[in-house]
Amino acid sequence: MMYKSFFKRPLDIIGSLVLLCICLIPIIIISILTYISLGSPIFFKQKRSGENKNQFKIIKFRTMRNYVDGDNDSMRLTPLGSTLRKYSLDEMPQLINVLIGEMSLVGPRPLLPKFNDHYSKEQEKRFLVKPGMTGLAQIRGRNFLSWDDRFKADIQYIDNITFTNDIKILFKTIIVVLGSKNFIQGDLEDKFKNL
After folding, report:
1. 56-108 pLDDT, tens digit each
2. What is the pTM of this model?
3. d(CA 46, CA 182)
4. What angle do the packed helices 24-38 and 79-86 form, to 10 degrees?
5. Domain boundary assignment for the chain
6. Angle 189-192-195 from CA coordinates, rounded to 5°
């Protein structure tokens, strides 16, 4: 409880600053490649529900062309965008969300506000903490897990927030992402239909 109340936020600030410095050159390169591939804007922003259901705009690199009638997501997804998603590189701008306090490095992944009225009482616990760039569900199965299993993992994390668990999740995330394990193409967070 002490870690969650007093030390988790400082860790997020320090961690996001360090990672932004480390990732600065890749972020610049991806920004240039995204601009060449898709033009402006470089970033995709979308409203998500955060702590206490407060809404904020999540930041990602754009991975899809603008919508045209008849297009589906697979048609809009660029080769660059596909690679960025496969290795979660499109998520790097969310370090800004972490730095300004809208997200945490570790926590439940934030979903669209339109789903707020569909959670069970137990699943509502996900709004007791800041959403994360990664979480227990992501290292257990990334977006390959069923929604029930993802929510169970989220609640398990929320019930056991410790410094040790956060560090383990962060390191295991690197292993999962680099190995491209349990990856399904497409943003499943936007296809949450079956609550």
Report:
1. 999 999 999 887 766 777 788 999 999 999 899 999 999 999 999 999 999 99
2. 0.88
3. 24
4. 150
5. 2-178
6. 140
